[in-house]
Amino acid sequence: MPEKKSWLKKTAVLMGGVAAAAGLVHVGARSVAQRMATTPMPHSLMQLLHPLSGETITVNRPDGTQLRVVTHGSGQPIVFVHGYGLSTQMWSLIWQKLQDKNYRLIAVDLRGHGGSTFGTAGIDSPTMSADLAAVLESLDVQNGVLVGHSTGGFLSLLMGLNQQKTAVSRLKHLVLRSTLCGGIGRENPV
Predict the structure, then answer these.
(1) For 56-85, what is the mean pLDDT?
(2) pLDDT tens digits for range 28-48
(3) What DSSP element (H or E) covers 148?
(4) Helix orientation angle between 151-162 and 125-138, rounded to the nearest 10 degrees
(5) Handedness of CA 54, 59, 65, 66 (dihedral sign)
(6) Is 54 exposed, middle or buried (CB count within 10 Å of its CB: 0-12, 13-18, 19+)?
(7) How does residue 148 score in pLDDT terms, banded at 50, 70 and 90?
(8) How far is 5 from 58, CA to CA, in rounded Å?
(9) Three state DSSP letters for 50-119
(10) Of all residues in the chain, what percent carry a pLDDT higher than 70?
């Protein structure tokens, strides 16, 4: 019987510790929620949802994919490539800040994202990186800056490896944000 009392005592102490930890998590979460409620948002919802201004064009791919591309302005080209599951809309804030500057802004919806279709080749990294090269060539980008976020950055790197001639002749700079390049040297990165 003493073993059972010892086990009950240990269990009670453990449960008390769990309850205390849960209480601390609750207090911490409540504190964070209060700070968030009293901190003004840096951008309004209207700014975040503002559509990209400019001309919408379509770049057709051999497999039937139609890539939606938005362009605005003239000057040095800046090409924006979004991450997986997103669309050109993610660039709304930076687009608004740059649209009155001397830049040619270009944003592409990756195949199967936003206003772009899938086509018959499906979605894989080599195909999507070739899509980027096709956009650069179709829009005759010269001395461009390619800005890639997440998967868009990975695809930009892959395009540089697989379509070196296009990348070298069309781009001057590459800007990557939240991009993982692990496995890019594999024969068939996905």
Answers:
(1) 97
(2) 778 877 877 777 777 777 777
(3) strand 144-149
(4) 80
(5) positive
(6) middle
(7) very high
(8) 75
(9) CCCCCEEEEEECCCCCEEEEEEECCCEEEEEECCCCCCHHHHHHHHHHHCCCCEEEEEECCCCCCCCCCC
(10) 92
